[in-house]
Every structure is written in C-alpha cells, then in structure tokens.
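BUG-469 | component: ligand-complex export | severity: low

The export step for iron/sulfur cluster jobs runs without errors, but we want the raw record kept on the ticket for reference. Input record follows.
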Amino acid sequence: MKKVDEQKNYIKEIKDLNKNNKDLKYCILTMGCQLNENDSEKLCGMLEEMGYTKTDNFEDANIALFNTCCVRENAEDKLFGKLGELKRIKEKNGTIIAIGGCMMQEQHIIDKIKQSYPFVDVIFGTHTLYRFPEDLFKALQTKEKIKDVIDIDGEVFEGLPIKRDSNIKASVTIMYGCNNFCTYCIVPYVRGRERSREPRDIINEVRELAKEGYKEITLLGQNVNSYLRVEREKNIPFEEYEGVNSFATLLRAINKIDGIERIRFVSPHPKDFTDDVIDAIASSDKVCKLIHLPLQSGNTKVLKEMNRKYTKEQYLDLVEKMKNKIPNLTLSTDIIVGFPGETDEEFEDTLDVVRKVKFEQVYMFIYSRRVGTPGDRMPNQVPEEIKHKRFNRLKELVESQIEENNQKYVGTIQKVLVEGTSKNNPNMLTGRTDSNKVVIFEGDKDLINKMIDLKIESEHMWYLKGVSI
Ligand code: 5AD
Ligand code: SF4
C-alpha cells in the first residue's frame, strides 16, 4: 500500500475513535516561514478529516499542535513559554500535545523536551510530517509518548489532505530541503537535501486551485530557482510535463493556467538567478514584478564567510540586469546584521547596497547562533549591543526609504487583488498591489477575490489608501 494511503487509513481509524464525540477541537501554533505555514495547512487538513475542528484557544482544544521553526532563537523561547502554559491546561483538560517541524530535528531540543516537558505526547520531525495520523493514533490508543523523528532525507509525498487558510491566495511547495549550507543557517540540517516535486503534480495542483477560484499562487521552496537542478545534474529521473524541466519553464507553464491571475515565489538564491529565469519573469504577465532577492550582507568578505557564493558587485550587477530586463521591477530582501566577524566598516557595505537598490521591503534579522552550524563555531561573535545598534541603524535607513518610496505610489493607478475587509475597519476593503503593498479602500464586498484598478490617494507607512475608479 502507498505510504500516503496507509496514513489515510489512520485518519479513518481516528475518525472512528472519535465518532461519538462531535465537538472535538484542535489548536495549532505555526512558527516560521511560509513553508511551515503550508505544512500546517496539511496538518489541519488531516485533523479536519479526523473529525476535529479548529479553535484559536488552547483552553478549548483536545489536540494542541505546534509546528516549530528553528531559524532563530526567539522561536525556541516561544515554544518553551507556551509549553509551560500548556502543562497547566493539560492537567485540567487532558489535552493531547503534539510538536512537529524543524526544531524537532535538533537533538538538544528533543533532550530538553524529554527532561523538562515530559508530558508532551507526540514529537514528529520534518521528514515524518506525513506520518502524523499514525503517530497521533498510537498516542491516543496506547497513551504512550511517541517520538517519530528520522534523519534521512524525506521522500516527496503527494495527496495529503489540505485545509488552506485563504480561498483567494494559495501556497504551493515546489521543492523541499536546501543544499546551500549558508554558514549561519540551520535549514539544511533540519530539512535535508534538495528534492523537487514532479512538474505534473505541481501543475495539476495549480489547475485544481484555479478551478476552486484561487487567484494568486505562491510557489515555495528554500531555493526555488534551483527547482529540478539536482535531478538534472545527478540524473535523478523525473518526468517532463508541459515542457517543464526547470524553474523558468515552470513559471512559464503556470503562467498559462486560466483563472490564476498572480504568481509569486519565495525564496530564490541570487547565485541561481540565471537569464532564463529573468526572461521567464519578464515575459510572463501573471508573475508579479516584486522579486524577493535575499542579500544577507552587502560586504564581499562577510558574504564569503556566509558561503553565499556571490560578491557585493555581483549582487548589484544582478539587480541592474534584472531592472533592465524586467519593466516595473521592485525588490525585497532579507538581511542579517552582526554575523561573526562583521566589522563596522563591513556593515557599512550593507547600508550602501540598501541605499543603492532601494528595496520595496527589507526583512531584517539579528544574527542568531544556531547549534551545529559553522557560524556558531566562529570565534569572533559580535557582542549583542553592537548587533542591536547596527540593526537600529539599518531599520532607520529602511524606514526612511519606505516613506520615500511610498510617495511614488500617490496619484498612480494600481492593480489590486481584493482580499477581504480590513481588520482595523470593517467598512473598508483591503487588497494588495503587484508589489505586495496593502491598499485600503471603500467598496462593495462583491469586489472580494477580484482584480481591480484603484487610484492611490495617500500613503501611511505600512499601507496605501485608494479609491475605485
Ligand atoms: N540568524 C539570523 N537570521 C537568520 N536567517 C537564517 N538563519 C539566521 C540566523 N542564524 C534569516 C536569513 C534568511 C531568513 C529566512 O532568515 O536572512 O533569509
Ligand atoms: Fe538557509 Fe542559505 Fe538554504 Fe536559505 S539558501 S535555507 S539561508 S542555507
């Protein structure tokens, strides 16, 4: 029997166990990136099929589920804080506690949970996410503590149930793992080596989403522009479908799917940003012209230490080339401040690149030591207060640039995908531009899930205000 079918049987078994209880609930806390959010949508899909419904309150939940991230230290603090709280809730309500995701691939975290939080019922890792039904079934039946973590690279599993967070925008994971080993990053250790989904499976998923009425697709992977690269280089068999044998051809194929109006993707790596990808973006009308291009540092020496495989100049040249070839291009980026050995002068290079590129959005991170990575073993760690000072300087620069950049929108007409009513003002609608800026405007609720033109009237740092035209 196929492994996924086996799990579907466990889903049925749990549904059977639950058949006399109609009011079973789960609460899920997802940490980290969009890949984790997509994994959580799969976990929610499994739980819903088992007969559980979602609650936002752990107090009301029969199952408390954590999908963890370990990219930075603050996620650990958050998990352990929540577990402390859940101990009390479990004593009162008998809640089943399950923890999965990236952090569970780290032995020191498992040891800490075993020692300090022995009441946790199920632990599963990134490669065993598909086995959550089986693990939960065993925990429910035997009342024993289940640990199901493996270290080998996971296979790619198709056909798991999924319950998506939105009915307008959907994420589609196109590849798993990472082969880059940037020296600050834990991801390659917890997510394993790169492996891509079959083109046919991705295209059929997007077609299905289009049929269901989804308008925007975000393609996900740790390194999306090396989609199918390992397969091609190592002669790992895959089936070409609709001409797809690379990231560029995948973009072109998805661009042809009727009903889908916007295509985004995160994250590409600058070193793999080949001309065919740039050309595919330029000539595919549905591919948004906001490209996320992680910089990490603007200094060539720091980039080398980070194992990023490009220099400051190569990054700037790539941006120049992209700007020339892709009309209306906007860029966002990730930056780490305070990588080991980074000096004040080297940090200036990061500010310099930010000044030159004028990013639409910058995700800023303070370097966080990750056990097991080369960065953690480097002797010249930057003191916390210096990291914070640099972070604040970068933040100031970025915010001043955002303000300036927002001015450019005022008076323009923007295509906006309307996503719903505004959280802060239910009389207003909210949507996003191609460049992912939030636009708030007055309009009829019928406009939700439609692409409309809005005239931008004013800017307010984190959002724009528009009017229908
Ligand atoms: N410390 C700080 N930021 C990190 N990132 C990855 N690892 C670390 C770390 N150890 C950031 C990178 C990456 C983003 C997802 O998280 O900027 O692009
Ligand atoms: Fe981490 Fe670098 Fe891989 Fe991104 S490319 S997941 S930063 S190792």
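Assignee comment: Attached the raw record above. The pocket of 5'-deoxyadenosine (ligand 1) is lined by residues 71-72, 184-185, 294, 296, 334, 336, 365, 367-368, 370 (CB under 6 Å).
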